[in-house]
Amino acid sequence: MKILKKNKWNIEENQVTPEVYFYNRRKFLSSTMLTISSAGLSLTGFPSFANSKDYPLSFKNNTKYKTERKITPEEINGKYNNFFEFGSHKEIWKKASKLKLRPWEIIIDGMVEKKISIDIDNLIKSMPLEERVYRHRCVEAWSMVVPWIGFEINHLINLAKPIGNPKFIQFESFLDPSVASGQKQYWYPWPYTESLTFQEAKNELSFIVIGAYGKKLVPQHGGPIRLAVPWKYGFKSIKSIKRITFSDKRSNTFWESLQPKEYGFWANVNPDFPHPRWSQSTERVLGSDKRVPTLIYNGYEEFVSNIYSGMKLSRKLFM
What we know:
The protein is an alpha+beta fold. The chain has helices at residues 19-23, 25-39, 74-77, 93-96, 120-126, 153-160, 198-201, 254-258, 301-304, 315-318; strands at 60-62, 105-110, 116-119, 130-137, 142-152, 168-173, 193-197, 207-212, 215-216, 226-228, 241-247, 282-285, 291-293.
């Protein structure tokens, strides 16, 4: 007799994980992580971490930035991603799983005391890890809520020991067209780059992410290391970082170099400044059919508005 089993991730989008289950997940994780790792699987059925050293992550829970919205189930946002290196559609997780996450070296250079090349696992072990629940707002007017694991960029700045007066930090992603077929499209300015002002990077919200949902990042989420700046549109949160450069000059970022009138350098969330082709006043919440009002700075105004005090609140600042 042939028995058909329904995959665990085949659920309706409106089946949002109850909050009580999420906040008690560590008891479950601690008892099952070794079994799951030995089987080569992730909790959601996604491919496990390629060539990863599967030591358990140790982190504290930072509730300062908690949101009233529910955590987006991993089963949903794990299969709805923008990662143009692997294609322009949303369901790129299978293609992205080909990206080898270990070994992975990160270069820190530019206006620093000494150029650094560091293994991702050594970097992780040297940092005070914490979990933060952040809202994530895409420029395409959809949103999600993710429990990221990582550390403030301030800790990375201390590691880098900048010299002089750097005004920007540029982030550069990987470049490997043999794995990422989207990088064969020559009209894109690969590798993907993004940049923050030094003041933005030093803000307490600016977060280097190395995990989510209690474990290390899978490729489609930008593994093994990505950026999270929750008051900005999602394309600023670059994935799969390979190089971090301190500079006194601002370079063009990936989308800015392609469409500067639509995707600017600042890209701060503001419902009153529409994208040239659609409104930004509301957003579709992943896992739900409803639309909710978009908040200025994605709801983080109290933490970041001081960065832009004295600056003209023009479209350029928000797009």
